[in-house]
Write a structure and sequence with these properties.
Blueprint: H1 5-18, E1 22-23, E2 32-37, E3 44-55, E4 58-67, E5 73-81, E6 89-97, E7 100-108, H2 115-121, H3 126-133, E8 155-157, H4 162-186, H5 193-212, H6 217-224, H7 226-237, H8 240-247
Antiparallel strand pairs: 1-3, 2-3, 3-4, 4-5, 5-6, 6-7, 7-8
Length: 248
């Protein structure tokens, strides 16, 4: 059992329980990919597996899970709403490297500077954020250009011990996901054409930023080569532009 498998198992079980889940197509060659890294006695297999679903109000629910031994474990789990809802994105980046853990958990807002949007989607989850702050201290600086894409309830922490991940981080992940699904339950479709255009632009801004700055790009390129990596990023992880282009 790898460090983040229980997170993924919990997420899938919870989604099945609360949503009408449908499969989401994973392009051929991305369901599973492995590579041998290191030399001699230090050689290890790195396995990347992909999981994806859709639901009535959610365009894509997807996970990329990288398992490379004790010093490399990654789970990137993101939920993208349908474009006719003003729901935030759900984002969990759970990363274990030789130097420790990097944990980022948030409901990433479409419109961070809109007070009404913050009142609707950030204020209700601030108590959850505050509950975990004492156990999971702030992880320090992150890029200025990334700030517009995170909410005031952004849980960003660098715990040293596995135990903190298995207890406090896992509990926070569960609470954030349940709170997000409560928002999904309550969400009503948007019909105003200007608001719909703003939502689409907010999605594209977020996706372009994430695809361009994906911190896993270097890792995937090292393991699987640049061609596979770029196609994985643009054709699966952040595929909205491709999907919109296919429709138009």
């Amino acid at each position: 059992m790898t460090l983040y498998q229980p997170f993924l198992d919990y997420a899938i079980a919870t989604l099945r329980d609360r949503l009408d889940l449908q499969p989401y197509p994973i392009p051929p060659g991305f369901e599973s990919k492995s590579a041998l890294v290191g030399k001699g006695r230090h050689q290890e297999e790195v396995l990347t597996t992909s999981t994806a679903f859709a639901a009535p109000k959610l365009r894509q629910i997807r996970a990329a899970h990288v398992q490379g031994g004790n010093s490399l474990q990654v789970l990137n789990f993101v939920i993208f709403p349908q474009l006719n809802y003003d729901l935030p994105f759900f984002g969990a980046d759970l990363v274990t490297l030789p130097g420790g853990h990097l944990i980022a958990l948030d409901m990433q807002p479409l419109f961070r500077d809109d007070p009404a949007y913050q009142a609707k989607y950030t204020q209700p989850i601030l108590p959850i954020f505050e509950e975990y702050q004492s156990h999971l201290p702030w992880g320090g600086d992150f890029p200025e250009e990334a700030r517009p894409f995170f909410s005031p309830a952004f849980l960003w922490t660098r715990p040293q011990e596995n135990e903190a991940v298995e207890t406090h981080v896992f509990a926070a992940f569960k609470d954030y996901l349940q709170a997000y699904l409560n928002f999904v339950d309550q969400a009503q479709p948007v019909t105003d054409s200007h608001a719909l255009a703003d939502i689409e632009q907010a999605h594209l801004r977020y996706l372009r930023y994430r695809a361009e700055k994906d911190p896993a790009r270097g890792m995937f390129t090292r393991f699987y080569g640049p061609e596979w990596t770029e196609e994985y990023i643009h054709g699966f992880l952040f595929d909205l532009e491709r999907k919109l282009a296919a429709v138009n």
